[in-house]
Design goal:
2 domains, 3-stranded antiparallel β-sheet, 14 strands
């Protein structure tokens, strides 16, 4: 058994399980890669997104009509049938045509805008009614899925605006030893189409890829490496068949004596 495990492990080279191994090949362990803030891809609002918008002003009463009702998140109090828990603003659902139905303003087109662009746009519209309004926009349904050869595959909600491939893999418990680091698939929906990209996590220039930072509803798939594929093709019932065959052979030998 020990020899078998040794043979299996020896089929996996160190390059197949090490991230950014190019740094080691160059003999440079202190390389610095600069990533400017403006180079990071901005999340843009898409149809079916859920966004939370809060409006405030110096005179808060004037801003109240531009906010959705606050609801409690938690259990329902039986005596009064009122929700109890942390109060939160309701979400806006972006329609298929890219609009949200905003109080007072009516239908507002927000598809393709970033959070900051949507906030500035609404501030300009609301300023016709309220002096110096402050609008805060937040994406409520930012989530990504990590599947394949990872320790904990699943779908994960993201609170931050930026989530990189390494951090996404960290949420899933990192790759198993059988995951391919040089061919990680990212699936992304763009303009009604599914775009796919293959990333090499052993390449230190991966940070320049537009898929290095994930967007809402992206799917990351870690492909199994060759030894894992070969083991998957192995017939799990083969050991049973061999045992049955050995018993039959033994019986045949005994009978022939």
């Amino acid at each position: 058994m020990g020899i078998l495990l040794l043979n299996i492990c020896s089929c996996i080279s160190r390059k197949e399980i090490v991230y950014l191994h190019e740094l080691e090949e160059d003999g440079d362990t202190t390389s610095v890669f600069y990533l400017q803030q403006q180079d990071r891809p901005q999340l843009r609002i898409k149809p079916n997104d859920q966004i939370r918008i809060s409006v405030s002003a110096e005179e808060q009463e004037a801003a109240l009509p531009f906010n959705l009702p606050v609801v409690g998140v938690g259990n329902v109090l039986e005596s009064s049938m009122r929700p109890i828990g942390t109060p939160q603003l309701q979400n806006y659902l972006v329609a298929a045509d890219g609009t949200i139905h905003f109080p007072i303003l009516g239908d507002v087109y927000v598809e393709g805008l970033t959070r900051n662009e949507a906030a500035k746009f609404l501030e300009e519209k609301i300023s016709d009614y309220v002096q110096n309004p402050i609008v805060n926009v937040r994406l409520s349904n930012f989530q990504i899925s990590v599947l394949g050869e990872v320790l904990k595959p699943g779908t994960f909600p993201i609170n931050d605006e930026y989530i990189s491939i390494p951090k996404a893999l960290g949420l899933a418990g990192d790759m198993t030893i059988y995951g391919r680091r040089d061919n990680v698939l990212v699936l992304r929906e763009e303009e009604g189409k599914v775009v796919k990209a293959y990333l090499d996590l052993s390449d230190n220039t991966i940070i320049n890829s537009p898929f290095y930072y994930l967007q809402q509803n992206d799917v990351v798939y870690v492909e199994p490496n060759r030894p894992q594929k070969q083991s998957a093709s192995y017939n799990r019932n083969a050991s049973i068949y061999i045992s049955v065959a050995s018993v039959l052979v033994s019986l045949a030998v005994l009978i022939s004596r």
